[in-house]
Structure formats: structure tokens, C-alpha cells
Amino acid sequence: MSLNIRAIIGMMVLTVLLSCTTKPHTVVFYNLNGYTLTQNGEVLQFDTVVFREGRFLEVGDSASIFENHRNALKVDYHGRTMLPGLIDAHAHIFGLGEAMMNVNLMGFTSLKDALDEIKTFANRYPDELWLTGRGWNQTLWPENAFPTAKDLDSVLSDRPVYLARVDGHAAWVNTLALEKAGIDRNTPDPQGGAIIRDEKGNPTGILIDRAMYLVRELIPPANEETYRNRLTIALHDIAAHGLTGVHDAGVSELQFSIYQDFERRRKLTTRVYGLISGSGETFDRLSVKGPIVNPNSDILTLRSVKLYSDGALGSRGAALKEDYSDDPGNRGLLFDSEDFFYEQIKKVSNAGFQVGIHAIGDKANHVILNAFERAFASGVDPELRHRIEHAQIVTVDEIPRFGELNIIASMQPIHATSDMNMAEDRVGPDRILGGYAWRTFLNHGAVIASGSDFPVEPVNPFYGLHAAVNRTDHRGNPSGGWFPDQRMTRAEALRTFTLDAAFSGHMEERTGSIEPGKWADFIIIDRDFFEIDASEIYQIQVLETWLGGLRVFSKN
After folding, report:
1. What is the pLDDT of residue 222?
2. Residue 286 and residue 272: Cα distance in Å, rounded?
3. Which residues does 527 contact at the CB level (< 8 Å), separation at least 6?
4. What is the DSSP string of 146-171?
5. Which residue ranges in the chain fall short of pLDDT 50?
6. What is the pTM of this model?
7. Cα 175 from Cα 183, distance rounded (Å)
8. Which of 46, 79, 413, 468 is within CB 3.0–4.6 Å of 488 for a Cys-Cys bond?
9. Order of strands across the sheet that contains 48-52
10. E-strand spans in 439-536?
């Protein structure tokens, strides 16, 4: 009998034993090529782990462990590599499910190909009242220009179309959608938004940031069944890619109630750390009883809030201190004043919640750092571990403020390699030195919690690990890496997706590494993360994902 067949049979037996009995088993996995990180950042290797009732009991070598657990259920892993379960510190779970159920324009490299996909999708679903989707990115197209409503009209004019850009900060709509929203040359730009217009002042079909709401609010809302379907398919994709924790950046009341139902029915296959969407009425209702924390399971937590200060770099909505280098006269969109964010930080913090604020441009990061500094001076508790989400373009001399103020930099390494084709065009050769500057952040004592921002980027965390270590795309471009002095080491990159991502959710004592007393969250992968050529990291495949000692995904 081959090793693979024996391994499969062994895992089938283990699954039956763990799922079909009420008596808790002590389980020993041995012959592992295991890695974890210690609190001081050192890489610890091991070949055996023991877990019981969802938590690790021992981690070390088989000789001593076998002696201590003679009657345990033992499983030979034949040298497979084990890592701690990975944690995505900034993503959108329901958005992933929605993207998987709607037209997906991710990665299309020409306007023509994108239009062909839209036409195919429209023909496949002729009864849908609206055609919606996401993922287009004009910087990947030879045209390198925003598409128009007329482009969409050429493939679909009798149904309204609403397609979010890859970053979620711009929408591409057709003429019928503009008409239904009453958007014409006389429609003013909303605060924090822009209607892109042609040389005659007519709307082109591109809506930036808060202008998107003019059309989006007309789309029939998804019902609860649709939301449940989105969550179900998203959870499967998340587990399949080795994520045992996700920080959901912008949770609504309906979404949280569905999370609670999934938790009650033991259908959540990843640990969800929720950031409430905004500090308004949704926050007021969800925060009535304070933060929701359950250390007995840690499956669902609600103790943070997501705010927005600006847009995105690709759509030129990120707020900059000076004009965009490739768009003179435009400095992006700052959504509100420093005073406003100062007051919201105080409101949220005084209720016991962490604040995570989206800030991409150097102006937005400056304003939010100032607001946090003022809030701390007024008595706001810095131990709530407040965060800036993205922190993409920061003035170089302001990066040390993250460490000084103990503001977590919640960053997405894959954004660097996705944006490198346009980022320097947007901000020029000087400002880009403070862009996606992970090494500079780390050198100044900042904590980086890494994520992907899926579905803006692929859900696969090994893509982010590859970007963090290589600063290249999957083809190895550019040679030597894009601003290679900002690379992370493999251990540093893994830490940002494990211990430090857990820290950003107040869970580093219970998750994020393979240690006795912590939840048995781990993954089995098909190659050695620390020994393979760095260029192969994105190719790593997850073979198994385990959450609290239960297997939630198996590639076999």
C-alpha cells in the first residue's frame, strides 16, 4: 500500500473518530515538518504536536511525547509541512461570496475582454433585473483609461449595469443606470465623491467613492437567503486557502446576525473578527451591550469599527497632500475633517471598541494620525490597539508615528505588486518612497497586520506572503523586486499573517502560533515554506485546514 493511500485511510479513520464520539480524544500528529514562531520572532521547528478538546497540549519531538501519551490516537504525516493557521487581518467575507456569484472582471487585461465577459454573463442570466459585478482595473488595459457608459451600452443597454472597480472605490455604469439615478450634467458631486465627466460636462459612466451610492442605492437589496449563500461559498473558499481567521472590515447588522446563526449551528469554519461598518446607527445598535467576545470558543468576535477617510489610489480617490503626479489639479477625496475623525475615535473608543480607519493617501494618513494623537491626549485608551487600514502612501517622516502612537499598520502586501504598474505614476519618485514601505514601518517599531482585502485581491494568503518576501509578480517581474529594500524576511512575513494579525484582534494569547494552550488552528501544505525557492511561495497548496482541532478542509 502506498504512503498516499495509507495517509488518506488514516485521515478517514481520524475524521470518523473525532466526529462520531462524544468522548474527547487526545490526538498526536507526528513525523511532521512543523514550523511556528515564538513571541520574540524566532522560528521554532518541531515534528510532533498533541491536541485535545480543540487546544494544543504539547509541541516538540516524538520521543518524549509518545512516552507521555501512550494511549493517544496517533497519525503519521510522512514529513508534510505544518504551519499555524493563517489570519487575514483585512478582508470582506460577504463581498467574496458576492463576487463569486456575480460577474467577475478580475485580471482581465483589455477592455474588449471585459466587455465580452459582461456580455456572456448577461446572456447566461437574462432574467436578472440588474447586472452587477466587480473587479475591473483599467490600469491593466492597453488603453489605461477609465471605460465609459457607452462601452457598456454596446453590450447591454436594456438593463442597468453596476460594476465596482477592483478596489471598490469606483463604479462603472451604463447609460440606463445613470438615467435611473437621475445623474446628468447638472448633478453636483456629493461630498467625498466625484462624477467623472467628459469635456462637455456630461457624466461618462464612472462614479468615484460616495458618488457610487447614487446608483448603488437603487439596486434591489439582496435577501437573507442570498446573504447566507454568499457566506457559505465564501467560507469554503477561505478554508481551502488555509485561513483560520479573517477580520471582516465592515459588518452590517444583517451580516452579524447571520454570523451568529452560523456560529450557533457550528457552521463557521474560520474565526471571524468583525469590524462594525461605520460609527453611526449601525454601531449604535450593535454596540449596545459593548464588545462581543467569547474566549471559550473565539469563533465570532465583534469589538472593532471600520471608518473611511479617503478613496483608492487606482481611481485617484486617495487623499494626497499635493496633486497627483499624473493628474494635475486633483488631490483625491478626503471624506471628512480631522475634527470629525477625532470625535468618532472618542465615541467608538469610549464604548470599548477598537477603531480601524481606512487611509491610503499621505493626506489621509496624516489627518488620521493627528486625530488619534489628539484622542490619546484627551484620554482615549491606546491599549485598544487602534489601526490604520492600508496605510499605503505615507510621508516618510511620518512613518515613525505609527510606532510612537502604537497604531497598528493593517496592510496588504499583495497591493504592492498589484499597484506597482501605476503607483509611482500616481505619486511620483519622491512620495513613492513612503509607499508600501513595510521595512521602514518595521524598522520604526510598527506592528504590521497583513491581509489581502479580498475580494479586491485573491483570497489566497500565499500570494500575499510571496509579495511580502519577493516584491515581484508571479512571473518574477521586475527583476530583483520593486523597491526591494522594503522586502520582509520569510519569518517576518509569516508573523504578519499569524501572531501580529492575531495581536491586531486581541487574540495573540489564544491563536497565531502552535503553542500549548492555544487553539489547535493549523494547516498542512504541500512544500516547505522556509526551504523552497522564494519565487515558488505563491505556488504553495493547502492540503488540510484545521480549526480548533477539527478539520474544516481537505484537498483529498
Report:
1. 85
2. 16
3. 81, 536, 539, 540, 541
4. ---HHHHHTT--SS-EEEEETTSSEE
5. 1-3, 5, 7-9, 13, 16-17, 19-22
6. 0.88
7. 9
8. 468
9. 55-60, 48-52, 26-30, 73-76
10. 448-450, 522-525
